[in-house]
């Protein structure tokens, strides 16, 4: 019940976090990766000693390949991101990384995406997020169609979407801040992480709202705020345990997984953390606030 008692504090904290995240996003921006702007990604691993990054950079510069970004990966590898490369340029780049045969190197993967394909992927990524949010509103409104008092069913859907935006805006803001200093880019795994956050977070919110619906159906004679507080308390342990289990797996993926999935696991972990927070400390207080606001009209 303390969640509802201090609802103004929790709602204010969420609004503050959203505002800070939006400031980060607009101030630092989100740099699109090769998935969306086109380009090439080459992953290599040296079979012996890995040369210094400066040596690799000088070797690439001699080929006059612009916009090259070189990032260490693992103990012996490098990720090299460049503009879109032709096959002859790809071969020359691969050969140059051995530094005249002094450092034997193995190519582990090469991806090349043209600008037109990248822009199409960006458009589809944005549409997919919009369609998911619309589908969630429709589903929540339908699922709670028999709940009309004291809060209409469609308002459950709107509150769910507001809290879901909270769950993806905050991780995006954190990523924007991190990318400003590390050079991380937005790719399809980033979009996949956001869609996964939406799916898992909406599940938590439905669990809480469903408990509220059941307590209302059972004719609980307490006022609405007490019903919401009791319902939240009944689901808090289950929700936290499930989320912590998933986060444990993601932390392992971040620590021991490949370099290419680190941003994915980091964004997903952050999103799930704030997702469980919003389900318990933002969605429920917001529902009570809406009910109180209705009574004042």
Automatic annotation (TrEMBL):
GO terms for molecular function: protein-transporting ATPase activity. The chain crosses the membrane at residues 9-30, 125-144, 156-177, 189-208, 240-257, 263-290. One of its GO terms (biological process) is intracellular protein transmembrane transport. HAMAP family: SecF_B. Forms a complex with SecD. Part of the essential Sec protein translocation apparatus which comprises SecA, SecYEG and auxiliary proteins SecDF. Other proteins may also be involved. It comes from the Bacteria. The keyword Protein transport applies. This is Protein-export membrane protein SecF. It is found in: Cell membrane. Its main location: membrane. The gene is secF. Part of the Sec protein translocase complex. Interacts with the SecYEG preprotein conducting channel. SecDF uses the proton motive force (PMF) to complete protein translocation after the ATP-dependent function of SecA. Keywords: Cell inner membrane, Cell membrane, Membrane, Protein transport, Translocation, Transmembrane, Transmembrane helix, Transport. It is a multi-pass membrane protein. Residues 125-289 form the SSD domain. Belongs to the SecD/SecF family. SecF subfamily. GO terms for cellular component: plasma membrane.
């Amino acid at each position: 019940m303390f969640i509802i008692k201090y609802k103004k504090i929790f709602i204010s904290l969420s609004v503050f976090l959203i505002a800070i995240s939006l400031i980060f996003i607009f101030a630092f921006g989100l740099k699109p990766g090769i998935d969306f702007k086109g380009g090439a990604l080459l992953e290599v691993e040296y079979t012996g000693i890995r040369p210094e990054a400066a040596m690799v950079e000088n070797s690439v510069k001699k080929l006059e390949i612009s916009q090259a970004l070189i990032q260490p990966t693992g103990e012996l590898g490098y990720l090299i991101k460049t503009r879109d490369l032709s096959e002859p340029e790809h071969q020359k780049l691969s050969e140059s990384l051995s530094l005249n045969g002094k450092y034997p190197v193995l190519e582990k993967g090469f991806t090349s995406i043209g600008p037109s394909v990248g822009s199409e992927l960006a458009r589809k990524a944005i549409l997919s997020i919009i369609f998911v949010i619309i589908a969630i509103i429709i589903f929540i409104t339908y699922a709670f169609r028999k709940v009309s008092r004291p809060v209409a069913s469609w308002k459950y859907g709107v509150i769910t979407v507001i809290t879901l935006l909270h769950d993806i805006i905050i991780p995006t803001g954190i990523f924007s801040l991190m990318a400003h200093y590390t050079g991380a880019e937005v790719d399809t795994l980033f979009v996949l992480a956001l869609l996964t956050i939406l799916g898992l977070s909406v599940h938590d919110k439905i669990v809480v709202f469903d408990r509220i619906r059941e307590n209302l159906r059972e004719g609980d004679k307490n006022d609405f705020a007490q019903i919401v507080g009791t319902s939240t308390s009944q689901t808090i342990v289950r929700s936290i345990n499930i989320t912590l289990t998933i986060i444990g797996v993601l932390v392992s993926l971040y620590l021991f997984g490949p370099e290419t999935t680190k941003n994915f696991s980091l964004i997903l972990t952050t999103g799930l953390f704030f997702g469980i927070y919003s389900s318990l400390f933002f969605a429920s207080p917001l529902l009570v606030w809406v009910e109180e606001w209705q009574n004042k009209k």
